[in-house]
Amino acid sequence: MIIVTGASKGLGYAICRRLLEKGHNVFGIARNVSTLNFPAAQCDVADYEQIGHIAKKLKKESAEISGLINVAGIASMNLALTTPKEVVRRIIETNLLGTIYSCQHFAPLMIRRKTGKIVNFSTIAVPLALKGESIYVASKAGVEAFSRVFAREMAGFNITVNCISPGPIDTDLLKNITHSQIQEIVSQQIIDKQFTIDEICDLVEIILDDRTSSLSGQIFHVGGV
Predict the structure, then answer these.
(1) What are the structural domain ranges in the chain?
(2) Is the pTM of this model over 0.90?
């Protein structure tokens, strides 16, 4: 079974659909799971106890967890000085703490099997240091740093930890960004194009493949920097 957070829409949902099409068992986690037609649980990843409750339930059911994909995330494109503290807190809690909490609770279920793959999500805005995204970048830079160190901590259990850092893709995170702003970001990438959700799903598949078991602690910048 592969656990996917942020499973109800956008990239998370697309990854779930792709994995299901490839014959994987998928368990989705999202704040609203009413529209999902595969096993899922309603949960805010920023809530440590909620995540822990799901992990305990899966352990009790003897679920065989082979992977964890942390997609859940939020963004607010605004200058640091004008970002309300409530928004700052929510971004950090969802993006950074949500990723850490999920790893803390679900990695032990993979340790029992002495194998597994964890894929976290960052953003190309981190290396590009994009103006107006300082809080969002701070949360995702934390995800990248955590992923690199956590990969070392999990290596002895045959569990890999990698991070995908895509440029702009067509999801709800871009709904408040203009076309010209997107193009400005894309122009700073090595590959001057906006990537599709399917292309990100392709990369997830590659990382999950047994043939890439030697890859760990890596940050994959989709588009290149």
Answers:
(1) 2-222
(2) yes
